[in-house]
Amino acid sequence: MMIPARKVPTFRVRMRKSQHVFSAGHFITLSDNLCEPVHGHNWTVACEIEGPLDSHGMVIDFILLKDTLTGVLSKLDHKMLLPTQSRLLRVVAENTEITVLFEARRWIFPADECVLLPISNTTAELLAMWIGQTLREHLASAGVSLFGLLRVEVDECLGQSAVCEFRNE
Ligand SMILES: [Zn+2]
User: Fold this and answer.
1) Is 165 helix (H, G, I), strand (E, B) or coil?
2) Which tens digits make up the pLDDT trace of 129-147?
3) Buried b (16+ CB within 10 A) or exposed e, 14-39
4) Widest CA span of the chain, in angstroms?
5) Lowest CB count within 10 Å: 10, 45, 112, 130, which one?
6) pLDDT at position 3, please?
7) Residue 40 C-alpha to ligand 1 middle, in angstroms?
């Protein structure tokens, strides 16, 4: 049986650079009545973009991608990451403080050291999703629209990572 040759090649760029790291605090809910203590990670982020080549033979300019991803991650670096869509954690912003409530537990953080993220839990999976969405928005602001696959991998502990993929049809 003949296997038809693919007539149109596809292209993908990958970026995994040592500078794409952010250090931040978080804690996640593991079940309806179980919540981790506050801790932190040095998250490393890698991404892949698949798409058609531009008139210069590139899927995307590596420097633009590198700098844009650096900018996205800088919003998370040295911050406490808090989810605003959790059904279990109540996050209340008041003046210069943010209070988080879970059952009888309470945490209070300085507001300017927190980032409130529109996700339900600050898992590596959902952080990868937020980073991917934000990366796509920032690239669009720079005039670059993504047409193919966008894949973001967030590693929270060497070799322990989550992947979020967006397929733009
Ligand atoms: Zn953690």
Assistant:
1) strand
2) 999 999 999 999 999 988 8
3) eeeeeebebebbbbbbeeeeebeeee
4) 70
5) 112
6) 61
7) 6
